[in-house]
Amino acid sequence: MTTDTSGATTQRGFSFQDLSALYLFLQSIKTLNSFKVEGNEDIDLNWKENKISLIQAKETVDPLQSFNTVYIKDALSLLSKDLSTYKNKPIKSIIFLTNSHFPFGKKIESKNGNQFNNENYCKYSYKNLSSEIKEKIQSWLKSDKKLKNITIDLSKLYIIKIPYQGDDTKTREIELEKEIEKFMGQAHITLDKYIPLKSQWNEMICQNKIIKDPDKVITKEQFMGNTSLIYLYDQTPINEFIQEFQPSISIENYIKSNYMQHLQSLTMDMSIVNIINSLICDYKQENPNPTKNSKREIQKDFINKKCNKFASLIKLKINNENLFLSKLIMWILISNEINFNFIKDAIN
């Protein structure tokens, strides 16, 4: 079967590039500052130590067949160019990333068998590759017309395989699912939120990719705010809100009819991340130590005072119905403060 790269999968779900970026970010989230997915194959990881990892992701539609080594040579060439682009930035690693079980061809076998021919995630530094693979890379760098004049630091070179194959989304994303569930456990997010959370992250990455700005990254703060949005979809607090604020029947019906539709458009706006963080921060600063008995009244008073400003921030037209909608969203955000803290702890 012909090997294809980037965008080979057009069905619903994560592309290989987007899945890989999210997987690697979740895997090292506590030691990263941000990540970027650009074009069809580029991924950048920005580390807390102010270093960067440059990644070329190459997907094959048939991971069990021999991989066309032209794509590895292209990746090494592009990584060399990236090194020139980032010559003033400390480089942590340069990475060739694939889903192929045979990225260097089926003919190359180490004494212990092919290093990448398994169903699991695997990562090897250049020095830990089999001698046969290292010899092949060295041969390319010496004689291949595309590579013989490039400069590449092999001590920073890594080969990563992330499984991505199968006829449906669940099968292709099984490795990512493990990493997402691990994060959810650390953030105390219940498994019933798995699907909306995954969809939320997928949309976040897709939206970021279409922004034509080389400096546009997804920061941990943005990731945290985007993750926090899953609690906006929880219907449970609506009845509590209605009991506390007692809107008219018509406004109650308006809230219930427009709540989900508005949230769907709201979650597309990355600026909502900062708005959520700002709201929680303001509330905690104004009410540092509320007692259990006073907490509900303090929360209501804060919401009533701030709802006009919050409605403007989330781009609601100011009218009585939308002010109640603004109050409802604020109510849910403040009520979920402890959940947001769990997410923050899992990320930082």
Q: Overview of this structure, please?
A:
This protein has 13 helices and 7 strands. The chain has helices at residues 16-27, 70-85, 131-143, 169-172, 174-186, 194-209, 220-228, 236-245, 249-266, 272-286, 295-313, 320-335, 337-347, and strands at 32-38, 42-47, 52-58, 91-98, 122-125, 157-161, 218-219. The protein is elongated, with a radius of gyration of 24 Å. Strand 3, helix 2 and strand 4 form a beta-alpha-beta unit. The protein is of the alpha/beta class. The chain is 49% helix and 11% strand. Strands 5-6-4-3-2-1-7 form a 7-stranded mixed sheet. The protein has 2 domains: 16-188, no CATH class; 226-347, no CATH class.
Helix content: 40-55%
Cα-to-Cα separation, first versus last residue: 44 Å
Overall domain count = 2
With helices defined by DSSP (H or I, 4 residues minimum), what is the helix count? Answer: 13
| SSE arrangement, N to C | HEEEHEEHEHHHEHHHHHHH
**Approximately what portion of the residues adopt beta-strand conformation?**
5-15%
Major sheet size, sense and barrel closure: 7 strands, mixed
Radius of gyration (CA) equals 24 Å
Structural class: alpha/beta
Shape by Cα distribution: elongated
Average residue pLDDT: 86
The strand count comes to: 7
Query: Low-confidence runs (pLDDT<50, min 5 residues)?
Result: 1-11
> Oligomeric status of the shown chains?
single chain
Strand order of the largest sheet: 5-6-4-3-2-1-7
